[in-house]
């Protein structure tokens, strides 16, 4: 049975209402400042979430609509947003802590934009929030800053259903930036299943060497043959000549003993970044000697293991540290 942590948006206290409007073009998720497609055709443009609001707090939505009894002011840039302290203390954890430490009722929030805060404040009062491809990152980042876990989960569910080979690595980077881990298993399982496609995307070529090393070291990568991994390393190294300094480090992540020796001789040893690096050539010779039981140097056991994409326990500690 899979251990995938998929976000459930249909908890007893959450009602999910899908809009009837379908998209014929892909919404855009602006992850880490890069605009990338979030979905294909026939996925809804937006999702409306209605979270449960305790009965004793529902009166504050009425008071807010009437502009009455405000006793807290949130300063965002040059704008002041008025609210009710009793509701904020229950519904928004960060503001509860700030208000308890500040008896004046005036709070300054420098790290969130006013439009996003107003959406999240509306959710605090009414339980309602509309998630779209263009606001999901801002909402999730704002919810993370304010400690609104239910909104974070709803945003994660929206993105989770729109994963693609060309956005999954950006999503990993985004989750890392806000320390959100609930969909780790789901996202990493997707990476495992679609490694070859992902390795041919621009996002893959932007990985740091640490991230790439952690990815290539995963036992659960689904590849038809180990040369797929070698080709991915070649693509990454070819982006910038300065990356050649990592050639041996990355070659050691390729399970060379699993590659037939004729291919090692005719393909790997003749690839320019291997042939031009004496350490890489020595490593390949040591692998061949070890396979023939004549080697003296003990190689890392991992390079002899078959990759087994079981997707059961797909987060390795090394990969988690590198990405998160």
TrEMBL record:
Q: Return the SUPFAM superfamilies for the record.
A: POZ domain
UniProt keywords, alphabetically: Kelch repeat, Repeat
What is the recorded name of this protein? BTB domain-containing protein
Q: Which InterPro entries match?
A: BACK, BTB/POZ_dom, SKP1/BTB/POZ_sf
Question: From what superkingdom does this record's organism come?
Answer: Eukaryota
Q: Where is the BTB domain?
A: 70-133
Species this protein is from: Pristionchus mayeri
Pfam families registered for this protein in UniProt:
BACK, BTB
């Amino acid at each position: 049975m899979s251990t995938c942590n998929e976000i459930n948006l249909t908890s007893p206290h959450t009602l999910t209402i899908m809009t009837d409007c379908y998209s014929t073009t892909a919404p855009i998720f602006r992850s880490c400042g890069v605009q990338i497609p979030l979905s294909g055709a026939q996925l809804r443009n937006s999702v409306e979430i209605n979270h449960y609001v305790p009965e004793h707090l529902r009166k504050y939505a009425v008071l807010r609509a009437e502009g009455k009894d405000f006793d807290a002011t949130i300063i965002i840039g040059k704008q002041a947003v008025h609210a009710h302290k009793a509701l904020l203390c229950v519904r928004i954890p960060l503001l509860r802590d700030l208000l308890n430490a500040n008896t004046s009722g005036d709070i300054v929030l420098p790290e969130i934009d006013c439009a996003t805060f107003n959406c999240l404040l509306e959710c605090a009062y009414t339980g309602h929030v509309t998630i779209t491809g263009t606001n999901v990152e801002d909402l999730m980042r704002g919810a993370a800053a304010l400690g609104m876990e239910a909104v974070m989960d709803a945003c994660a569910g929206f993105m989770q259903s729109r994963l693609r080979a060309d956005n999954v690595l950006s999503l990993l980077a985004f989750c890392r930036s806000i320390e959100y881990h609930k969909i780790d298993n789901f996202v990493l399982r997707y990476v495992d299943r679609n490694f070859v496609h992902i390795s041919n995307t621009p996002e893959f070529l932007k990985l740091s060497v640490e991230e790439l090393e952690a990815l290539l070291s995963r036992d659960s990568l689904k590849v038809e043959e180990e040369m797929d991994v070698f080709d991915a390393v070649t693509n990454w190294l070819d982006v910038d000549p300065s990356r050649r300094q990592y050639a041996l480090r990355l070659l050691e992540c390729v399970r060379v003993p699993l590659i037939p020796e004729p291919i090692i001789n005719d393909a790997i040893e003749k690839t320019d970044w291997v042939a031009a690096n004496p350490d890489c050539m020595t490593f390949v010779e040591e692998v061949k000697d070890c396979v023939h039981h004549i080697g003296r140097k003990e190689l890392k056991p991992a390079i002899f293991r078959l990759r087994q994409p079981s997707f059961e326990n797909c987060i390795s500690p090394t990969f988690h540290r590198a990405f998160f």
